[in-house]
Every structure is written in structure tokens, then in C-alpha cells.
């Protein structure tokens, strides 16, 4: 029997740490911290390490001082995606409609499992994933997606709770700050506070038109959801991208123009991978730099005809980089953005566009070699100054390379 008014939210507990414990039982029960690819800060921690005062974003030197007995590991997003896909498949065993929201979060339409109650279904899903995959998760079931997430957040860790009773629902909303709702951060909370809206229950009982005036239609949708009216759809497929980007921290500061250009090309090759995957062409390319002193540089190129050809994109990126960067100024972050995306069938070729036969053949050969040998086995010579980066296995895969999820 399907409950069309019931939705579920599944969230893994300390997912990165749990994933590391799946393949190394030695880590169970110990304070564990997962570090970013540069090893400079903690991006995830176990409950044991959290109890020692380590937070997400804590620099490694401070984390070691707070938790000297901790075990610190470099993150491995490729492994985390493997387990994430297994979790997705496990949720599909309980529901035919599943939203891959993030690497460790899923929304689903509730279908009672083998005659169990909704509470029994939540418990069965939680226990099944732990037994078959080894990852502890928390499951919440409620009348809407927004309520289901609030329920699962309340039930952590390793909880399972189906909440459809209206009085119990009001009690939960009354003790939950409005900032616990996804989409309401400090700025929106400050806008609501003068009207006495501090808890989720305050928001649910506020005038709908007032909420819409303060938070636009997105806030109005949250108002409906908190009142048990499911208006936010379950997205079983990721919506088409409006922007694709690649980049991030350089793991330090450099003023070397060759190394900086190598980072631009590295990120551009990763961006081309995504354009190929999504069968999209870029109508506009932006190169963004953040300097060590906090200043920024950004330049863009608009193409006469949208493209995903590496040779054309790298040719456009070079002058953007040269205009965005002030020689001698240290750079700590680089990002490349592709915007004004078009599907192949909607791309109008220009009269003077260069022929693409040879370029497409080279790109196809490059993909074939990398598919067979390994990602970036064949890459642009401009990336040679980053040999140290390519030797680091943790650098080969990032969270944004995990396709299909909704929130990234």
C-alpha cells in the first residue's frame, strides 16, 4: 500500500567516517577525522572526535591539539560514491521513487514494506542498510519532504522515526529553530525575527502572504510543507544544469605563472568531462581567481557559437586568465565556470566556425585512452607543472564529480 501523503528522508550518520570504517574495522569506536585533499583541515569527524571539540573546518594542527589520539585520513570521494550508489539501490528496494539529494542523503516516497507499519518500514530500511552495506543511517518519515528531513535530523544518530500525528508534529516544530529548515539561514532568520517567527511552528502558523513577502515563493513553499501540504516535488532525476564549474583551493599560494596556468587547464579538462557527460555546450566561459590577500579577479568570454571543444575552450581561457591575474600576486583558488549552456540540438553553428572533425577525433581518442587506462592518464602538456598533484590519488576525484545528486 502506498502512502502518497508520506515522504521519507534517509541521512547517513558521519558518512565519510562510516565509509572509512566499512573498509577498515580498526577505526570503529575510535576518534576519526577525514581531511580535505590538501590535508589542511577536517571536513568530517566521528562522534568521538566531535566530543573532543573538533569541528568541521578545524585546521589539522588545531585538531591534533584537541584530539591527539585521533586517527586522521585523507578523503576518498571515489570510495564514498561507491557506497552512496549502494545506499541508493538499497532505498530503491523499499521505494520506486527516490531522489538522490546528496552523496549521503535521499528523499523517497513511502511504500510500506512487506505489510509493516510506517514505523516498521523506517526501522527495516535503517537495519537493512547497516547489515548489507555497513553504513549506519537515520530514517525519518512524515507528511512532506521538509518535515521528513526535520524528523530524521531529530532522530540522529541511527534512528528511525515515522511522525504523522499532528499533535506530535506541532511539538517537534515548536522546539525546532527555524534555521533548521533547509533554505533558511541566518539572513532569512533575521528577516523573520521581527515578526516573532523564531521556531518552525511560528513559521507554520504565520500568515502565508507575509511569509511570501518576506521569503518569496520559495519561503511560501516551505510554509505549505511545514503545514503538511507536499508542494516540493520529489526529483527522481537531476534537473538540467544552468551552470557547470570546476575548481577549488590550490592547497597553498603560488605566484608561478606556469603552475597557475596548469591549474586552469586541469580544471578546464575536468569541466570538459562534465560538458561531455551532460551533452552540453558552453555559451560563456569565466575564469575566476582568488588572491591570497582576499582580492579577486574574474574575466569571461562569450562564444559566438556554444562549444564543449577543449581546444576552443582553452584558447578562450588563456586571455581570461591573463586579464584576471596580476603577475606577482599570490593565488590560492581558481574556478572555471561554463554558463549559457545549450544542448547539441539547440546549438547554431557560425558561418566562420573552425571545422571540428579533427578536434572531435582527438577528444574521442583521449576519452578512450583515459577510460581504459585511468582518469587523466592522457592530459594536456600544460598540466606538467602539477605532476605532484596528479600523483596524489586523493586529487583524482572530488565531491562535484559525483553525478546525479540534486544539491551539487
Summarize the structure.
This protein has 14 helices and twelve strands. With 408 residues, it is α+β, with helices and mostly antiparallel strands.
Q: What topology emerges from the helices and strands here?
A:
Layout: E1 2-12, H1 15-23, E2 32-35, E3 42-45, H2 47-51, H3 60-66, E4 71-74, H4 77-92, E5 98-102, E6 105-111, H5 118-132, E7 137-142, H6 145-155, E8 160-162, H7 166-174, H8 186-192, H9 200-205, H10 208-226, E9 244-254, H11 257-277, E10 282-291, E11 296-307, H12 310-324, E12 331-339, H13 357-373, H14 387-391
Parallel strand pairs: 2-4, 7-8
Antiparallel strand pairs: 1-6, 1-7, 2-3, 5-6, 9-12, 10-11, 10-12
Fraction of helical residues: 25-40%
* Global mean pLDDT: 93
Give the tally of structural domains. Answer: 3
Give the end-to-end Cα distance, rounded to a whole number of Å.
Answer: 33 Å
Verbal overview:
With 408 residues, the protein is α+β, with helices and mostly antiparallel strands. The protein has three domains: 2-11 and 80-226, Reverse transcriptase/Diguanylate cyclase domain (Alpha-Beta Plaits), CATH 3.30.70.270; 15-76, MutS, DNA mismatch repair protein, domain I; 244-401, 2-Layer Sandwich (Dna Ligase, domain 1), CATH 3.30.1490.100. The protein is 40% helix and 21% strand. The chain is built from 14 helices and twelve strands. It has a five-stranded mixed sheet, with helices on both faces. The longest helix has 21 residues, at 257-277. It is globular and about 65 Å long. The relative contact order is 0.11.
